[in-house]
């Protein structure tokens, strides 16, 4: 049996807001949002971990590179569980790297490093964890994208209007880098 909770983000969630409350979530039953061509599912966030880390999955079809961005105070982990994902990273000195990651591969992006990714195979999946002193950014996905209750990928990609990208940096530690060029492609 799965219990639903009301939170400040959603009228119904499988995730309790109380950090002292243990819980279990069946596969795919976390808080879901569509963003770009992807389905993001949050299983644990700042409310549950007292702002110390989040745990989420991103799954999607083969597609375009998501916009380059960085997190000033948040470290991010990419662990691939299905398909293939190309991770692009630029360190604080401007050195760029890219790596094709397949199931079982791991990528780490330290804070302040510009990064992006591209799903290289249909139905690829990333397990993500982010942590840092500024808290967590998991609610960014549904703020920039759209919260959904159904399972599955979006029928059409949800591409936010350019001005909407500027609305999320302060609260979610996400700074987009419009026009950023990847020299590694």
Automatic annotation (TrEMBL):
Organism: Streptomyces monticola
InterPro entries: Cupin_2 (IPR013096), QDO-like (IPR053146), RmlC-like_jellyroll (IPR014710), RmlC_Cupin_sf (IPR011051)
Domain of life: Bacteria
Listed PANTHER family: PUTATIVE (AFU_ORTHOLOGUE AFUA_8G07350)-RELATED (PTHR36440)
Ranges where the Cupin type-2 domain occurs: 60-119
Protein's UniProt name: Quercetin 2,3-dioxygenase
């Amino acid at each position: 049996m799965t219990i639903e909770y009301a939170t400040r983000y959603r009228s119904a969630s499988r995730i309790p807001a109380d950090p002292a409350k243990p819980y279990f979530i069946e596969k795919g039953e976390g808080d879901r949002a569509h963003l770009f061509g992807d389905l993001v599912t949050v299983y644990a966030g700042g409310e549950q971990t007292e702002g110390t880390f989040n745990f989420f999955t991103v799954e999607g079809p083969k597609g375009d590179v998501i916009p380059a961005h960085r997190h000033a105070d948040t470290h991010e982990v990419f662990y691939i569980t299905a398909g293939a994902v190309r991770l692009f990273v630029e360190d604080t000195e401007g050195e760029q790297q890219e790596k094709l990651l397949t199931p079982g591969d791991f990528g780490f992006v330290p804070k302040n490093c510009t990064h992006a990714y591209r799903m290289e195979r249909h139905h690829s999946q990333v397990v993500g964890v982010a942590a840092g002193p500024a808290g967590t950014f998991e609610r960014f996905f549904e703020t920039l994208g759209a919260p959904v209750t159904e399972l599955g990928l979006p029928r059409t990609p949800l591409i936010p209007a350019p001005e909407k990208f500027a609305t999320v940096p302060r609260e979610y530690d996400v700074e987009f880098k419009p026009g950023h060029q990847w020299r590694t492609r």
